Amino acid sequence: MSEQLLTTITDALDDKKGQQIEVINVTGKCSFADQIVIVTGSSSRHVKSLAGEVAIISKKSGLIPLGVEGMDAGEWVLVDLGDIIVHVMQAKIREFYQLEKIWNVEAQA
Asked: To pair with 86 at 20 to 30 A between CA atoms, which of 21, 53, 63, 109?
């Protein structure tokens, strides 16, 4: 179910004009997830919309999100789906935190 859900989520993010969608496999590298998805939204409204879509898709798939954080500000929204963690960020936030670099270094270790 996890792979199918991951594909459904990334397709939906692409359909909704999410930018720079990146999936990082962290299986065996951390205890809280198998996949991390990072996507950029163009504005706070777009970030909220993308994160909301992820939550809706997961619910339709029978998986209620464990948590959704950051919807108020809309700069960085984290959707926790258990095995899949989705980070929806505005470009300036994504550039500042550079999660890809952190996780890619971890994934190679």
From this structure: 109
pLDDT of residue 68: 97
Q: Are 37 and 88 in contact (CB under 8 A)?
A: no
What predicted TM-score, i.e. pTM, was given to this entire model?
0.92
Backbone φ and ψ for 86, nearest 5 degrees, come out as -115, 125
Tokens encoding 59: 């619910």
Contact criterion met (CB below 8 Å) for 25 and 107: yes
Question: What's the pLDDT score for residue 109?
Answer: 46
At residue 1, the pLDDT reads 53
* Residue whose token pair is 């470009």: 91
For each of the domains in the chain, give its residue range(s) and CATH number, in order of start: 2-108 (3.30.460.10)
